[in-house]
């Protein structure tokens, strides 16, 4: 699941991610990797404990060098956000304030709207151990918090950045159901092709006395056709099935059947 | 941002997470932590390279012991999913097959529907280095893939599990805009309270000759009232502002003003 690819589009835009007093270089690197996966590129650090640059961060970033190389360091949070127009603070703890509290989906939608309007935005993430101070939260416009398990709320900063980056990316898609690749296109079968499968199968079974007793044949045919019809097989799939039936129908076994094999079914399928 | 809390509801239900031949105990632990954050609890391992149990996994799980303690190990993927009704395979690579490919949002919605209908489901995640084989993907019903940066697709298994767990959690919410806590409730102000603020402020300014020249006063009052009105201040906020105006209006400074201080504004606000 990895690899930069220089021939494909490198998305690098959107809100700045601001880490306040991060402690471990590994975490900063994982944050850069999370950002790069979802098209963010602007990382700002306020007073990183172990200094900057950091080889541990670069290593953990897993080749997100375009993020690491442009990371900027600030002495305090005010300087880190002074050029921005709108800032979210992430927090897991209730703050008992008047500041609006948003879900990641709503926050990402707001960030995308402001991005499209030309505003500069950012998202604050606090220290590994205890997050942001109330004074730091007060510098932001709104709060964003994650819908976590009430009895197990333990997101680290790289995970929190990953989720916000992912929601940001999704707001840029025309359709949340869109996927980067699709299955091989299949042509829907025509009824003529479906009827062809019915006749092929029923003739081969009839020739072996499957429809027994004869009075039950109409009901058995109904059931068999219902099983096939409800699947909505494509043209290609019908072709696969006809190949299977032809093979079973025409050719003798090349080796004797094992007794009690797993695939063995009841002889008569009208149960 | 951490801590289990035994007095709050521990959510532990939903699809099984199946890791195929995971290598590092740390990754298994981070997967357990990601799952626990978003209410999943059933972890299955197919042939973990370094065996099981794993102290590294337990340590990285950050107290997600309820997941680690119940993790089950299987010899092969068939056994690991034999009791399930519906299985997704996660993959970042195009597979050129007929299997439907879904986005995380669509896959999570499908998993929630099947969960509510009483079906047992699972999600497969491949090896750290190279994911799932085609034969393993073939055992699943559908494929799920993430909307990543085309030129930087580098999600590790713990990140991929985090995103699917998060989408699963969201499908259980009545409203994606819901948040675990809300700001202090505020009462909308009445027009009488807004007019009270207008008068209070304008009287204090008028007493200082702010509205100058007098011919401009009506326009200046209009501008001032527009600035206040468009904010939609709450009752509590209007009360805060009236306290500020009272303080500025009634009391003398206790220390001399610094020259060139940052907060100084032009004397006349009608620009």
Automatic annotation (TrEMBL), chains A, B:
Residues 16-166 form the tRNA/rRNA methyltransferase SpoU type domain. Keywords: Cytoplasm, Methyltransferase, S-adenosyl-L-methionine, Transferase, tRNA processing. Homodimer. The keyword Transferase applies. The keyword rRNA processing does not apply. It holds the Pfam family SpoU_methylase. NCBIfam families: rRNA_methyl_1. GO terms for biological process: tRNA nucleoside ribose methylation. One of its GO terms (cellular component) is cytosol. It comes from the Bacteria. InterPro entries: Alpha/beta_knot_MTases (IPR029028), RNA_MeTrfase_TrmJ/LasT (IPR004384), SpoU_MeTrfase (IPR001537), tRNA_m1G_MTases_N (IPR029026). Catalyzes the formation of 2'O-methylated cytidine (Cm32) or 2'O-methylated uridine (Um32) at position 32 in tRNA. One of its GO terms (molecular function) is tRNA (cytidine(32)/uridine(32)-2'-O)-methyltransferase activity. It catalyses: uridine(32) in tRNA + S-adenosyl-L-methionine = 2'-O-methyluridine(32) in tRNA + S-adenosyl-L-homocysteine + H(+); cytidine(32) in tRNA + S-adenosyl-L-methionine = 2'-O-methylcytidine(32) in tRNA + S-adenosyl-L-homocysteine + H(+). It is found in: Cytoplasm. Its EC number is 2.1.1.200. This is tRNA (cytidine/uridine-2'-O-)-methyltransferase TrmJ.
């Amino acid at each position: 699941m990895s690899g930069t690819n220089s021939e494909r589009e490198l998305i690098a835009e959107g809100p700045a991610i601001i880490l306040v007093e991060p402690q471990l270089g590994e975490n900063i690197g994982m944050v850069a990797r999370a950002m790069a996966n979802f098209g963010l590129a602007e990382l700002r650090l306020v007073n990183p404990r172990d200094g900057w640059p950091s080889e541990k961060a670069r290593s953990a970033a897993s080749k997100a060098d375009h993020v690491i190389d442009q990371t900027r360091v600030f002495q305090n949070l005010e300087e880190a956000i002074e050029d921005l127009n709108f800032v979210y603070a992430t927090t897991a703890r209730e703050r008992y304030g008047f500041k609006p509290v948003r879900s990641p989906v709503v926050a990402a939608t707001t960030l995308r709207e402001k991005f499209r309007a030309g505003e500069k935005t950012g998202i604050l993430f606090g220290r590994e151990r205890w997050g942001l101070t109330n004074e730091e939260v007060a510098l932001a416009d709104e709060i964003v918090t994650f819908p976590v398990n009430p009895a197990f709320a333990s997101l680290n900063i790289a995970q929190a950045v990953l989720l916000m980056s992912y929601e940001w990316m999704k707001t840029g898609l025309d359709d949340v159901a869109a996927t980067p690749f699709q299955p091989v296109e299949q042509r829907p079968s025509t009824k003529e092709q479906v009827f062809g499968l019915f006749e092929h199968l029923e003739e081969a079974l009839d020739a072996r006395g499957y429809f027994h007793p004869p009075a039950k044949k109409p009901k058995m045919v109904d059931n068999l056709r219902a099983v096939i019809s409800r699947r909505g097989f494509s043209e290609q799939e019908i072709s696969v099935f006809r190949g299977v039936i032809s093979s079973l129908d025409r050719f003798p076994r090349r080796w004797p059947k094992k007794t009690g094999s797993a695939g063995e079914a009841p002889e008569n399928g009208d149960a």
